[in-house]
């Protein structure tokens, strides 16, 4: 910027490091920033910050819908850790999140690598096809899979019949409902990691591959030495975001099994919903939710660390 | 890419076909059912690919007189459009402030915005429901619109701030400032007109996210008059009265088609930008 005439004594001293700008100086200089951010801040306060704080305070009371509730200390947390269903749901949620996140990551990477080998036009259309589940409503995903796996009229039972076998009850018996939920959730969201990976792969300069090939690296070595190092940050980003979103996932499992049969496939998100809006016990529901918050916030901390590494690329 | 041979090509196509089948076959089963009569849909004699003569669009015409789907889809459109407009009104200046302006507290605010993206929404519905209950917004279309606007806001900020950061060169604003604009008018007269493609893309995704949303509408409404199509399908599924699978699947096709088709068409233009779409 051109040197301005008539600078004040303070500005000159500051330029040579003799003075530091104080907070009030920065406030005065940057007031437009606040004009821009105020609407967002108001919205966030009304529907994020206040409810979050209100919810945490709620866990120390016996609040129900429409009743303010009394302070009862840690009783809700005590109820929580001694509640068998919660402990069960907590364990199954972790298994569900680990399974779906892992599968989404692997399938997404595979999809991105395969798509990268196609020509541009084919990449566009086949990419849109392969990514399409991600854009269906999660609730619709649940209904689609429920129909797909239906015992009497579904595709799977028909396919089993072709081989003369009886299809297992995918949504009720044995280990099947767990597998069905994980596979259905993977189907809906693997495209997310495919999209992020595809962007990362596309940003690798072609020359690096050519150089590696010239020095005699085969396909596998090129992947290991050129592609893989570039995928580290995207992997952390995908892992943490998908972990948080898989924990939060409600609609699709709710439509597919709804936690059933009975409470067999009860996830924390469905349990939170049930306690809050079926039993109307808001305080306890938020206490259940605190377990989810704890899990997703761990993921969020990792995510923030990862994006501050390479802020401009993925933010 | 380099030194291709036939075997790796074949492997590539096998992989692509496997992915395409995994993605599409569940959809196909829904579409197949939606084009059959109710009897044919559950008959074991109907093949994987039904005979051409068995196909009918009967279920698509039945949707409209069987349920209040006109109301449901109208509600879906109303709340999605309103949520898009409101959230953009908040998100455009917010995203610009995050991307370009420097003010004390920017980082802290930005990272709390990141946390909100990753916060489990189902937990947040509880205190928000309480607030809406006291404000008498439960079971109203206004309440749904407010909730959805806030729900799509972090995603909008995310998309737009990425664009402002990378898509608009900084010297454009510097030139505007030298020309005598202040930051506010530089933004309104120079930056905003340059940003309409990004704003359009953000609007599209905001619309689709609101359209797809189930949780908020489900929690905040019980009456049929304010129900959106997504929630309506859940209720129809749960009611024992209906076992007309073809009609249900036809309505599911109508629900799923707009987002999937919009995305397929706009993919080329917006591609990787949608990093922050909460599932």
UniProtKB/TrEMBL annotation, chain A:
Family designation: Belongs to the binding-protein-dependent transport system permease family.
Bilayer topology annotation: Multi-pass membrane protein
Subcellular location: Cell membrane
Superkingdom of the source species: Archaea
Protein name, entry field: Carbohydrate ABC transporter permease
Domain ABC transmembrane type-1: 90-303
GO cellular component: plasma membrane
PANTHER family according to UniProt: ABC TRANSPORTER PERMEASE PROTEIN (PTHR30193), INNER MEMBRANE ABC TRANSPORTER PERMEASE PROTEIN YCJO (PTHR30193:SF37)
Transmembrane annotation, as ranges: 31-50, 85-113, 125-148, 160-184, 285-304
InterPro entries reported for this sequence: ABC_transporter_permease, MetI-like, MetI-like_sf
Keyword Methyltransferase: no
Keywords: Cell membrane, Membrane, Transmembrane, Transmembrane helix, Transport
TrEMBL record, chain B:
Bilayer-crossing regions: 12-30, 77-96, 108-126, 132-153, 190-211, 245-265
PROSITE patterns, per the entry: ABC_TM1
Localization per record: Cell membrane
Topology term for the membrane: Multi-pass membrane protein
Gene3D superfamilies linked: MetI-like (1.10.3720.10)
Record InterPro entries: MetI-like, MetI-like_sf
Keywords, sorted A to Z: Cell membrane, Membrane, Transmembrane, Transmembrane helix, Transport
Pfam families recorded: BPD_transp_1
Gene Ontology CC annotation, any one: plasma membrane
Domain ABC transmembrane type-1: from-to ranges: 73-266
Main location: membrane
PANTHER family hit by this protein: ABC TRANSPORTER PERMEASE PROTEIN MG189-RELATED-RELATED, SN-GLYCEROL-3-PHOSPHATE TRANSPORT SYSTEM PERMEASE PROTEIN UGPE
Membership in a protein family: Belongs to the binding-protein-dependent transport system permease family.
Protein name: Carbohydrate ABC transporter permease
Organism of origin: Haloplanus ruber
């Amino acid at each position: 910027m051109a040197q301005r005439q008539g600078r004040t004594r303070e500005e000159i001293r500051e330029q040579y490091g003799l003075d530091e700008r104080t907070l009030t100086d920065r406030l005065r200089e940057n007031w437009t920033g606040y004009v821009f951010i105020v609407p967002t801040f108001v919205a966030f306060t009304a529907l994020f910050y206040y409810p979050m704080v209100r919810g945490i305070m709620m866990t120390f009371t016996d609040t129900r819908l429409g009743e303010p509730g009394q302070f009862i200390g840690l009783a809700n947390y005590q109820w929580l850790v001694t509640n068998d269903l919660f402990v069960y749901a907590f364990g199954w949620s972790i298994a569900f999140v680990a399974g779906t996140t892992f599968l989404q990551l692997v399938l997404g990477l595979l999809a991105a690598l395969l798509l990268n080998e196609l020509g541009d036009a084919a990449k566009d259309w086949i990419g849109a096809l392969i990514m399409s589940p991600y854009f269906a409503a999660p609730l619709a995903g649940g209904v689609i899979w429920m129909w797909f796996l239906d015992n009497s009229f579904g595709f799977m039972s028909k396919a089993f019949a072709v081989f003369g076998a009886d299809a297992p009850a995918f949504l009720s018996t044995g280990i099947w409902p767990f597998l069905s939920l994980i596979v259905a959730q993977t189907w809906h969201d693997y495209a997310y990691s495919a999209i992020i990976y595809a962007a990362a792969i596309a940003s690798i300069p072609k020359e690096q591959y050519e150089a590696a090939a010239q020095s005699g690296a085969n396909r596998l070595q090129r992947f290991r030495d050129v592609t893989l190092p570039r995928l580290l940050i995207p992997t952390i980003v995908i892992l943490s975001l998908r972990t948080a979103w898989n924990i939060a996932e409600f609609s699709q499992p709710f439509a597919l099994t709804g936690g059933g049969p009975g409470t067999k496939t009860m996830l924390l998100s469905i349990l939170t919903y049930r306690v809050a809006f079926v039993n109307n016990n808001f305080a306890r529901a938020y206490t259940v939710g605190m377990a989810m918050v704890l899990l997703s916030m761990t993921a969020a901390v990792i995510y923030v660390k990862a994006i501050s590494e390479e802020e401009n690329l993925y933010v | 890419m380099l030194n291709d041979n036939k075997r790796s090509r074949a492997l590539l196509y096998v992989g692509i076909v496997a992915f395409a089948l995994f993605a599409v076959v569940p959809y196909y089963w829904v579409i197949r059912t939606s084009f059959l009569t109710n009897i044919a849909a559950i008959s074991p004699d109907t093949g994987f690919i039904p005979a051409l003569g068995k196909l009918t669009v009967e279920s698509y015409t039945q949707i409209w007189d069987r349920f209040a789907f006109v109301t449901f889809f109208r509600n879906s459109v109303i709340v999605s459009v309103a949520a898009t407009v409101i959230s953009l009104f908040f998100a455009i200046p917010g995203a610009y402030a995050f991307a370009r302006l420097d003010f004390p507290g920017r980082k802290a605010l930005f990272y709390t915005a990141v946390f909100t993206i990753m916060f489990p929404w189902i937990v947040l519905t509880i205190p928000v429901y309480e607030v809406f209950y006291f404000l008498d917004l439960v079971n109203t279309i206004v309440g749904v619109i407010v909730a959805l606007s806030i729900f799509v806001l972090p995603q909008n900020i995310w998309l737009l701030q990425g664009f402002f950061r990378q898509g608009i060169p900084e010297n454009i604003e510097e030139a505007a400032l030298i020309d005598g604009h202040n930051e506010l008018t530089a933004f309104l007269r120079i930056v905003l007109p340059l940003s309409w493609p990004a704003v359009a893309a953000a609007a599209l995704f905001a619309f689709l996210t609101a359209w797809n949303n189930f949780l908020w509408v489900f929690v905040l409404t019980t009456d049929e008059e304010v129900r959106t199509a997504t929630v309506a399908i859940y209720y129809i599924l749960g009611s024992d009265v209906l076992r007309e699978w073809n009609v249900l699947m036809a309505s599911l096709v109508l629900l799923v088609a707009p987002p999937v088709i919009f995305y397929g068409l706009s993919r080329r233009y917006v591609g990787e930008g949608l990093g922050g779409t909460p599932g």
